[in-house]
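Our consortium's second objective concerns turning raw sequence data into structural hypotheses that experimental partners can test. To show how far this objective has progressed, the report includes one record in full. It was chosen at random from the queue rather than selected for favorable results. The single chain below, 583 residues long, was entered without modification.
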Amino acid sequence: MVEGGNISKADKTEFTECWKTTWKTPYIMRLALSAGIGGLLFGYDTGVISGALLYIRDDFKQVDRNTFLQEIIVSMAVLGAIFGAAIGGWINDRFGRKKSILLADGLFAVGAVVMALAYDPWMIILGRLFVGLGVGMASMTSPLYISEASPARIRGALVSTNGLLITGGQFLSYLINLAFTKTRWTWRWMLGIAAVPALVQLILMISLPESPRWLYRQNKVEEARSILGKIFPANEVDDEMNALKLSLEAEKADEHAIGDSLTQKVKGALSNVVVRRGLYAGITVQMAQQFSGINTVMYYSPTIVQFAGFASNKTAMALSLITSGLNAFGSIVSMTFVDRYGRRRLMLISMAGIILCLVTLSIMFLEAASHAPEINQFDTDFPTNATCPSFLSLPKPLSWNCMSCLKAGCGFCSNRANEYSPGTCLAFTTDLRDSCRGQNRTWFRDGCPSKFGFLAVVFLGLYILSYSPGMGTVPWIVNSEIYPLRYRGIGGGLAAVSNWISNFVVSVTFLSLTKALGSSGTFFLFAGFCTIGFIFIYLLVPETKGLQIEEVEQMLETGYKPRLLRGESKGESQSALAHVAAN
C-alpha cells in the first residue's frame, strides 16, 4: 500500500488465534470487515483514476491537451486526503469513530456520483476532492475502529486485514476499469460504481456500535460494557473493563504531560531529543516511500504503459492490472519477511531493487525513443494540411521520428502493415485521430511503438515487486515503533502528513516532468531520489525488530549510528544491542 495509518504487526501465531477467535465469535469479524470496507474504498478510489483518465481524455479535448489539468484531476484526491486526515483526528475524538466512518461513506458516495454525472472537468475535480476527503478520514478511522473493537491478542491480525483491503481495492479498481472498457459510458461507470460499497458500508455501520474505548472515554460506561460483552466471553468482560480504565487513565496522564493543544504537543515533541531523532527516521522513510515514485505507477500506470508503446487503452489497463496484482502480493510477502529479516534490512534491500529497476526503465525508455519509427513524408492517405505544422516547417525533416512528433504536440499514425515501419506525423485533432483509426492504423499520442516496450513493462513489474514487500509497508511499521508511547500519536501524525504531502508533490508533477524530461529522464530522476533516500535510511533509521519501547528510546537517546560508521564488527554490534536490552 501506498498510504495508510500506523500498522500493528501480526505474527503467524496471531493469525491462527484470529481464525479461532472469530470462528467462535463471528461478531468480531463482522465489526472488522464492515469497517474494513473503508480500506477497500481507500484503495479503489486511489487506483481507479489511472484507467478512467484515459477515457476522460477521449471525451474532453481540454483534458487531453492539458497535462496540468490531468495532474489536477489525479492529485485532487490526494489534496483532499491531506485535509481529510488533518480534520479526521478531531472528528474521531469529538463525534466518535462510527460517525466518522459514516461521514467518510457520505463523502465517498457524493464524490462518486458527482464524477459519474460530470459534464465538465471541474465537476470531476470537485468529485475527486470529496473522495479525497473520504480517503483521508478512512485512512485514520477504519484501522482505529478495528483496533479499538478487537481483542488485544488478535488486534494486529485484524488491523492487517485493513492494509490487505487497501491493496485489494486497488486491484479491484483495475479489474473494474478493464470490465467497463467496452461500455458506452466507460469512465463514468468506473468512477461512479464506488458509490455502491460506500452505501453498503453506511448501511452496515448504522447497525454496528460505537468503539467501546470512545464510549468509555465519554463516560458511557454501561454502553461500553454492553459492546465488550458481545466481543469477549462473559468471564473476561470485567478484566477488559479494568484494562480499559487503566489504559485511558494512562492516556489522559500522557495528554496532560505533553499538552492539550496541537501546538503544545508539536512543540513538546520537537523539544524532546528522542522524539526528534525518531522523527528524523520516521519522516525519512515516509518521504522515501513517496519519492520512489510508487504513486505515479498507481495513479498513472496505464499511461506509463502507453509511454512504453502500447497505445490501446484496453491493453494498457490489462498490463497495468498485473502491476496492481503484484502490489497486493507484495503486501502478503511483507508479513512473512518483516519479522524474520528486520525492518531496516528489508527497506534497504527494497530501495536497492527499486533503484536498479528505475535505472533500467530509464535506459529502456531512452532506447525506445532513439529507435522509434521514422516519419513517412510521402503518405498519400492524408492531405498535406493534415501534417503536423512543426514537421512541415523543418529544414531537415529526415531528422524526425515518432518521438520527435509526439514532443512537438502532434500525433503519430502508424504504418498500416507494420507498426515499427515509418508512419505519419499528423496534427493533434480528434478528426485526424478517428481517421487514422478508421484506416485500421494505430494512433499514438503518449509513446511510440517499440520492441523495447515489453521489457519496460517487465521491469515495471519488477519495480513493484521490489517496492511492495519493503518500502510499501515497512515505513508504517517503523512509525508505529520508533516513538515513545506518549508521543506516538503526534509523531505518527507528523510522519503521515509528510507522506501525504510528498504523495501530492509527486502526483501533481509527474506528467509535467515526463513532458519536460521525457519518460527516461523522469525515471532517472526518481532513481536519484531513491539513491538519496537509501543513504538517509542507512544513516538515520535504526533496526526496531524485537525491541521493547524502552530499548528503542534508549538507543535514540544515545544517538543511532550505523555499524559501518561506528567501526564495530557484527559481533560487537550484537553485544551492544544485548547490553541495551539488558538495561
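The partners drew two points from this record. The two ends are 37 Å apart (CA to CA). The beta strands are 411-413, 424-426, 443-444. Both points have been shared with the crystallography group to help prioritize constructs.
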